[in-house]
Structures are given as C-alpha cells and as structure tokens.
Amino acid sequence: MKWIKDEEFIRGNIPMTKFNIRLLTLGYLAIEEGDRLLDIGAGTGSISIEASLHGARVWAIEREAEGIELIRTNSEKFNAGVNIIYGQAPDSLPNESFNKCFIGGSGGKLEDIFLYLQKKLENNGIICGNFITLKNVTQFIQLLNKYNYKDIEVQLIQVSSMDKIGLLKGQNPIFIAKGVKKYD
C-alpha cells in the first residue's frame, strides 16, 4: 500500500493534513474499498485523495477557491476520483448518504453539520475530526455526546520531524476525535 508524502502534493496557502496525522485519521475512519466518505473542509484534498486511492468514493467540500483548484490539481496528479464541491457546509452538501465523514474545517458550523449528518450518516457510520483548538474539539465532543455517538475516542498528537541538520522541528499539536453513529 503506497502512502503519499507531503512533498508530493501540490501546495498553496491552504492548510493540509500532514502525513502522520493523515495516516492516523484514515485509520480512525477505517477507510476501505466501497466506503462513501464526505470530507468537509477538504483543504488541498490530501485526506480525500488518499481515501479515494484506498477504494472509497469521496465527496470533498471546500469553501476557498484556491482549495478547490488544489483539490482538482492534486486529484488529477494522483488519478484519484474525487467529487469536488465548491461551497460551505452544510448548505452546499450533497443529497447523498455516507458511511464515513471527516471534518478538517467547519467554518464555525459544527452543530449544523451534525444536524445534516443525523439524516445523511448511516448507522454505524464513523465521523472523525481534526482540531487545533480546545474550543473546537470540546464542541465536537459535546456534539458527539448530544447526538448519542458511541465509541468516542480523542487523542492529542504532537509530531516533530528531524530537519537536514538533525534538529527536531515540531508541528502544531492536533486533536483527533472520532465517534460512531449508533441507533439505540
């Protein structure tokens, strides 16, 4: 199984989920052949593209024009089939059902996104989000509980990588949180 390194993606001024966090996130989502993934706040498309290359059908929504172009360019570069949506969640989200959802950015509309997922995320569907602030991860956990998601997991991941001269350079710590939608 080939994983794409960060430097292989075409980058701009749009945030990208970095390699180590991307692998953990795809693991939490348990991406496999035949999944239907909704990627909200898709940025450069790194999660969408990796998921597509691992057999998922993917819908990626991004509100920044530069991000849309980067997703398109990177999808073509890696020959990934990604349905690209230019717009804001949840207003521009498709009338589709999904069994996996990743939230990389919510534009401050987490609760509205959860309301959408009440109808569109299937039973036993997995939602996973990456957050850099305590406020956002706390709200996400509260919403997981409010909507009765099960198997909730949260981790704070700190990654440091060695540079060319041997110094470790730290990246921003990232909260990875996930839950499973289960009907009682």
From TrEMBL:
Top-rank taxon: Bacteria
Coiled-coil stretches are none
Pathway(s) the chain acts in:
Cofactor biosynthesis; adenosylcobalamin biosynthesis
**InterPro entries for this protein:** Cbl_synth_MTase_CbiT, Cobalamin_biosynth_MTase
- Transferase as a keyword of this entry, yes or no, is yes
Which UniProt keywords are present, listed alphabetically?
Answer: Cobalamin biosynthesis, Methyltransferase, S-adenosyl-L-methionine, Transferase
The UniProt entry, under PANTHER family, shows: COBALT-PRECORRIN-6B C(15)-METHYLTRANSFERASE (DECARBOXYLATING) (PTHR43182), COBALT-PRECORRIN-7 C(5)-METHYLTRANSFERASE (PTHR43182:SF1)
The entry's protein name is Precorrin-6Y C5,15-methyltransferase (Decarboxylating) subunit CbiT
Species name for this entry? Tissierella carlieri
Q: What gene is this protein a product of?
A: cbiT
